[in-house]
Design a protein that fits this description.
CATH superfamily of the largest domain: Antibiotic binding domain of TipA-like multidrug resistance regulators
Helix content: over 70%
CATH class of the largest domain: Mainly Alpha
Strand content: under 5%
CATH topology of the largest domain: Globin-like
Structural class: mainly alpha
Number of domains: 3
Distance between the termini: 65 Å
Strand order of the largest sheet: 1-3-2
CATH architecture of the largest domain: Orthogonal Bundle
Order of helices and strands: EHHEEHHHHHHHHHH
């Protein structure tokens, strides 16, 4: 069966402009252009669009999706199994959040006691899954599955007080880092305070701290463009500045 832009947009629940954009960037070309100049899509293109929308639902950027679905080694069946796995994880997390909300409502309306740890379980799980989705492959390659799994378990078992402090430190790091970069000196007092806050923040999820691992993670902030983008969206050069501050803090400044 073949579809025009209008018809495919309707059945996929997206705009015609989106399909035209996908054509422009090469991620989803039509099967052919008919004699009237209309884009025509076949079953192959419909299947690819399904994969694109699955990946988008998982928060993956179009540039990365393009690389995945256009790769000669792309395995459609394997991709569908992976989609199912990720969607089931997302379903589990949503169910946990729904249960969390239901318990909170019950505790307010019927004076049912809800443990504080339960109130934050869904948020901690979401944090872990977001980190796995964005950086899991690289972190596991660098530190190993066992280390990462222990780190995830430590986060899952955080108390309410620990989780609140973990979140507070994360916010404070970005604030002090923004002030520190203005000095232009990663060895400045405020920059070194930022590096120490970063160490404290890591201690909530790392099973064991070491200067070498801290410095290695800081270097990854610069080597991996996704880490870099996270920090540099605040201000260009912020990831490199944090890396330099941490290398000085850990006494592993490679420039000395």
């Amino acid at each position: 069966m073949e579809y025009t832009v209008q018809k495919l947009a309707e059945i996929a629940g997206i705009s015609r402009r989106t399909l035209r954009y996908y054509d422009e960037i090469g991620i989803l070309k039509p099967a052919r252009i008919n004699s009237s100049g209309y884009r025509i899509y076949g079953q192959k293109e419909v299947d690819r669009l399904q994969h694109i929308l699955f990946y988008k639902e998982l928060g993956i950027k179009l540039e990365e999706i393009n690389e995945i679905v256009t790769a000669p080694t792309f395995d459609e069946a394997a991709a569908l199994r992976k989609h199912r796995e990720k969607l089931l994880e997302k379903k589990e997390q949503l169910n946990l959040l729904i249960a969390n909300v239901n318990k909170t409502i019950a505790s307010k309306e019927r004076s049912i006691i809800m443990q504080n740890e339960e109130k934050f379980a869904g948020f901690k799980k979401k944090k872990i899954e977001e980190n796995e989705q964005k950086f899991g492959e690289e972190i596991r390659a660098k530190y190993g599955d066992e280390t990462v799994n222990r780190s995830n378990n430590k986060m899952k078992n955080m108390t309410q007080v620990e989780y609140e402090e973990f979140t507070r430190l994360e916010n404070e790091i970005m604030l002090t880092l923004g002030t520190a970069i203005e000095t232009g000196d990663p060895a400045s007092e405020i920059a070194q305070k930022t590096a120490d806050l970063h160490r404290q923040w890591l201690s909530f999820s790392w099973d064991k701290y070491s200067k070498e691992a801290h410095a290695g993670l800081a270097q990854m902030y610069v080597d991996d463009e996704r880490f870099t983008a996270y920090y540099d969206k605040q201000r260009p050069g912020m990831a490199a500045f944090l890396r330099d501050a941490i290398l000085i803090y850990t006494e592993l400044d490679k420039k000395n």
